[in-house]
């Protein structure tokens, strides 16, 4: 196996020069840099990443902890986070917590052992103190932990207002809101708060149903939705807290004989890729998923570099009107 000394000898430079090229430190002419890279290629030299990280005091690794990459929202978010991390020479270690407390603890310990430079958290099973004790830069996505941990979210309250008002403006007189677990202290709960404020203001009959904690299963969503319409067959509008739930409602509506949007109007939240492909195409609140990912990477890198960052980072949403309302 080739060593750094072999590369230096092949390129006709010193070991220090090869080290500077590898770590991008100090001035190196383009001609010298090219000679070093050509020597590395010919010798099939693989740098010792552990040694490099100790030298640079950075691993160039970021942990990403999410509930499940199978969920369309987290899948898209993860894709963008990986893209913007890579643009900044960082790699992502992906951890699916499945909202399991012990699994999340294990993953955080694993990330610390791998000396990641920071952790991005889109899950929320542990107590706030346990995240604060990580002693690494942390950014939360759509999660509020404390005034010490910065978070990135969309304008959930305004999204809830726009969604609920649209249903009312289109003639809905009994509206359901299917929310996430409200026991969690997350910015997403502002969708529920906005819904309640608007229906009370307009004196609209309403029903609120919470999804189960730790469940992102369309079969479970469908059972919940069928029960909702069995108990309240006169519901004529639904604001769903995610596009995945909204798509499941459209599917369930066919089974119970409701036509969308004639008998039932639906607004989702996220604007993931399936929103425009289901039938009818879904009216939804668009979260700026790419911008959220980019902002998350900017904040974690600023923290790694010792810069001050804003704790609250709320990005604007957009109402996207299609054919479900």
TrEMBL record:
Signal peptide feature range: none
Record-linked InterPro entries: Cro/C1-type_HTH, HTH_LacI, LacI/GalR-like_sensor, Lambda_DNA-bd_dom_sf, Peripla_BP_I
Top-level taxon of the source organism: Bacteria
Domain HTH cro/C1-type residues, every copy: 3-50
Keywords: DNA-binding, Repressor, Transcription, Transcription regulation
Record flagged with keyword Repressor: yes
Domain HTH lacI-type: 2-56
A molecular-function term among this protein's GO annotations: DNA-binding transcription factor activity
Official protein name in the record: Transcriptional regulator, LacI family
Native species: Thermoanaerobacterium thermosaccharolyticum (strain ATCC 7956 / DSM 571 / NCIMB 9385 / NCA 3814 / NCTC 13789 / WDCM 00135 / 2032)
């Amino acid at each position: 196996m080739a060593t750094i000394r072999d590369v230096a000898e092949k390129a006709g430079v010193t070991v220090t020069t090869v080290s500077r090229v590898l770590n991008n430190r100090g001035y190196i002419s383009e001609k010298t840099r090219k000679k070093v890279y050509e020597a590395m290629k010919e010798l099939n030299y693989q740098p010792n990443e552990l040694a490099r990280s100790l030298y640079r005091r950075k691993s160039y690794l970021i942990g990403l902890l999410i509930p499940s990459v199978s969920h369309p929202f987290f899948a898209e978010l993860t894709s963008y986070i990986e893209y913007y991390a890579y643009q900044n020479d960082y790699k992502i270690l992906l951890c699916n917590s499945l909202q399991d407390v012990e699994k999340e603890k294990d993953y955080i310990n694993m990330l610390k052992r791998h000396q990641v430079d920071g952790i991005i958290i889109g899950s929320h099973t542990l107590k706030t103190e346990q995240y604060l004790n990580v002693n690494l830069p942390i950014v939360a996505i759509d999660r509020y932990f404390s005034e010490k941990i910065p978070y990135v979210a969309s304008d959930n309250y305004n999204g809830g207002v726009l969604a609920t008002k649209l249903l009312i403006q289109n003639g809905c007189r009994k509206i359901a809101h299917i929310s996430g677990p409200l026991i969690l202290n997350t910015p997403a709960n502002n969708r529920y708060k906005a819904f309640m404020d608007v229906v009370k203001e307009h004196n609209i009959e309403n029903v609120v149903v919470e999804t189960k904690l730790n469940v992102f299963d369309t079969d479970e969503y469908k059972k919940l939705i069928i029960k909702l319409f069995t108990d309240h067959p006169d519901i004529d509008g639904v604001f769903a807290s995610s596009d995945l739930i909204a798509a499941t409602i459209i599917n369930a509506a066919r089974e119970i004989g409701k036509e969308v949007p004639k008998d039932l109007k639906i607004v989702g939240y996220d604007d993931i890729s399936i929103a425009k492909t289901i039938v009818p195409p879904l009216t939804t609140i668009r979260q700026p998923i790419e911008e959220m990912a980019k902002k998350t990477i900017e904040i974690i890198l600023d923290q790694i570099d010792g810069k001050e960052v804003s704790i609250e980072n709320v990005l604007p949403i957009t109402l996207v009107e299609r054919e479900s309302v």
